[in-house]
């Protein structure tokens, strides 16, 4: 990787009210580091799985639903992403955010690699425990939990959890006093794809109330957590969040006499295409605010979801209908959409990329330029693409330009569709909630 000049001189001690402006080196890191793709997608294996499945379907005679959309999941990609994580953030122990994609085989692979888990609910905890994972490898990272779920965590010895309000501390005192608590602080996530700090996190100005309550109730505070927003793009917020966490570490010890905090939880928000930069910014912020000389025993953890799930899954959908609007303009209807596995368009602000997979009895998997949102001479067919429900909201793309004149029976695929897709699919209009997943394990 290109050497990056880091200029630390401008960094002042954390301020409570007025956060420092983005450190210069964050911008210079973005300038100098060539984005590194941590994985080389296993195209041959993915294509082979897609092809075999489609070749086995006879459009004319198949049973209803045999031509349903389906996923190809590459377990080898999980391994590659893990290797890359380990290489770039060796000090940071990942706790995979199960909510992002709770696929059983993905969870099992991550567990076998030694990755731990961030669970948001009783069901997610149950799912992870059922894999044989010890409860001390789970963080219940939901700052507002139902009392019955807190009791469930207590019963199952899940000790680590996050909180951001006084009321939660009273519930925890009552139902799970042995909890090991991480105080979640807010971040500046204004540029993230999905903001989280609008809902969760305590502002620095208000942590006193929480620290006081921890002290008064005799609870066990072990660390600080944050999340810079899912699909975060402003890396300076990562830097500022680490700085703010240090502020809470210092305050807890110096003003409230609490035992030294042991865990820094840097949350999620990592993406494969910016990971080289974000890991660099994070490592540097950790070195600056939690230097090993003073924080040798500090445990640093993270809650990545999207990073491990997005590129692991490819979705294939069937063209079920077409409405011609002109010679080279049409509405294309496919059998999955925003109420199904492409709910990420609504909830996660994703813009899935359609590519022609099968047209005119031929496969076009490797035609990576078979579509674009921009008009081009090589892409003469203007389409809008729609899901199968009767709702007008069920639109995958309003305008795309395609190389091929798609017709009923053709197949389209969407790469990188594993994050926040199947986990929030609904059976609205009677369309199946879960579709088949074909697993491959490409070489690492
Ligand atoms: C508490 C918490 N941790 C981790 C994640 C995972 O975030 P990402 O998929 O952006 O890594 C989320 C996402 O909503 C979250 O709410």
From TrEMBL:
Cofactor (UniProt):
pyridoxal 5'-phosphate
Gene Ontology cellular-component terms for this entry are: cytoplasm
List, in alphabetical order, the Gene Ontology terms for molecular function in this entry. Answer: ornithine decarboxylase activity
- Note the SUPFAM superfamilies from the entry: Alanine racemase C-terminal domain-like, PLP-binding barrel
Which reaction is recorded as catalysed by this protein?
L-ornithine + H(+) = putrescine + CO2
> Which pathway does the record list?
Amine and polyamine biosynthesis; putrescine biosynthesis via L-ornithine pathway; putrescine from L-ornithine: step 1/1
What is an example of a Pfam family matching this protein? Orn_DAP_Arg_deC
The UniProt similarity line reads: Belongs to the Orn/Lys/Arg decarboxylase class-II family.
What is the annotated quaternary arrangement, including any partners?
Homodimer. Only the dimer is catalytically active, as the active sites are constructed of residues from both monomers.
**Name this protein carries in UniProt:** Ornithine decarboxylase
Q: What is the lineage of its organism?
A: Eukaryota, Fungi, Dikarya, Ascomycota, Saccharomycotina
